[in-house]
Amino acid sequence: MSRVFYFFLTVTAFPLWAQDPTVDLLRKLADAPGPPGFEEPVRKLMVEALKPYAQSIRYDGMGSILATQGAEGPRIMVDAHMDELGGVVRRITPRGLLTMQMLGGWLDQALVDQRWTIIGSKGPVHAVTGIRDAHVVPAEERARVFSRDSLFLDVGAQSEIEVRNMGIGPGSPVVPDAPFTVLNGTDNYLGKGWDDRAGCAVIVEAIRRLASLPHGNQIIWALTTQEEVGLRGAHTAADAARPDIGIALEAGVTGDVNGRPEESQEKLGGGPGIFLYNSSQVPNRKFVDLVKETAAAKKLPLQFDLVQGYGDDSAEIQKSNGGVPTVCLLVPVRYTHAHNGIMNRRDFDQAVELLVALIERLDAPAVQKLRDFTP
User: Fold this and answer.
1) What pTM does this model have?
2) Is 141 a catalytic site residue?
3) In terms of Cα–Cα distance, which of 175, 181, 264, 161 is closest to 228?
4) Annotated catalytic residue within 39, 205, 227, 316
5) pLDDT tens digits, residue range 57-102?
6) Residue 225: how many CB atoms within 10 A of its CB?
7) Is the separation of the CB atoms in 216 and 364 below 8 Å?
8) Among 76, 127, 191, 264, which is disulfide-ready with 116 (CB 3.0 to 4.6 Å)?
9) Cα 368 from Cα 28, distance rounded (Å)
10) Lowest mean pLDDT among 12-26, 98-112, 267-281, 308-322
11) C-alpha 278: how far from chain center
């Protein structure tokens, strides 16, 4: 066997995720379908990953996971949402085309000429949002962004009955068809749904590490539903968790490609981040200072971001239980709310390190200090 052939066989037979459990976890989470209200595949993966390290696992009435680790001390709610942007089938036309109700904050220009997966009752069905042929589009329309209401899902069918025979009907969930890829041998990972599967994976890595580290807390690891349509799962999960302190984990918005400094300040590969402001929440200032001190003590980079038009679960956590000091930590992501996002492995690993170190510092006196507003 030649060396060239042996090298080819080795690379193709043993992909990176077969050698690195973290990459495998990220691949599984990114590829799993889970638009708002249809999070079952992601829930199954997360329960399997959390079960070895949690003392108990329960669910709220919205389907969010509440996994508890530790029996004494302050109640720390660590949150990431399981759902991703997607849609549901609205209706089937007599010609066998489908219209789609979008779920979450899509840009219209991100929808045209894209591949999708419809989760039908008989299994996944591949689809595409078609595009007018360039040979017939008049010059005045060539630069136009087509409205989502003008788009159809094409599954290759010729009639409504053919579509229904595929197991598809109104309400069938739809997700982007964008498989996970290690991007050209770099430490950057391409995939759908990093908002917020990156945060879900941070929780898996953190609960595993904290299982063997001393800390004086009750940690409620909350994997929530329906964040992308109004932070709904975080509301009910926080009601059930009754936290003293809240930490949300999210996908940050990078501004290093086609961005403007006033829109976003994060860079891919620049380390984990923290929101100092977004349009749904202003974090607890003393908690922000503690995050800064923890990052500095661990010699971890920390990026700061302020983003308009961004909402996250920390907004609901901080309004619960009479008011909860809360921060939102970030794994920077390029191209959120689109089919293909990019996250960086070092950013991810450092986000895990920061979260673990922060929880280790949150004993009862530290939590009481954060909750003390005495003038």
Assistant:
1) 0.93
2) no
3) 175
4) 227
5) 999 999 999 999 998 999 999 999 999 999 999 999 999 999 999 9
6) 28
7) yes
8) 127
9) 39
10) 12-26
11) 17
Q: Residue 32 contacts by C-beta under 8 Å, 6 or more apart in sequence? A: 41, 42, 45, 193, 197
* Same domain assignment for residues 155 and 289: no
pLDDT digits (tens, 9 = 90+) for 245-254: 999 999 999 9
> Strands 273-278 and 303-307: what pairing?
parallel
The interaxial angle of helices 345-361 and 285-297, nearest 10 deg, is 110
Q: 3-state DSSP helix/strand/coil percent for the chain, to nearest 5? A: 35, 25, 40
Residues 6+ apart with CB under 8 A from 137: none
- Mean pLDDT for all residues in the chain: 93
Give the total residue count for the chain.
375
Q: Let me know whether 211 and 267 are in one domain.
A: yes
- What is the C-alpha separation between 333 and 345, in angstroms, rounded? 11
How far is Cα 246 from Cα 238, in angstroms, rounded to an integer?
A: 9
Least confident of 124-133, 182-191, 337-346: 124-133
Identify whether residues 130 and 253 lie together within a single domain: no
* Structural domains in the chain (count): 2
Buried b (16+ CB within 10 A) or exposed e, 349-373: bbbbbbbbbbbbebeeebbeebbee
Please tell me what DSSP assigns to residue 179: -
Domain range holding 136? 87-176
Instruction: Give the count of beta carbons closer than 10 Å to the beta carbon of residue 285.
Output: 12
CB-CB contact of 255 with 89 (8 Å): no
**Can you tell me the mean pLDDT for 207-228?**
95
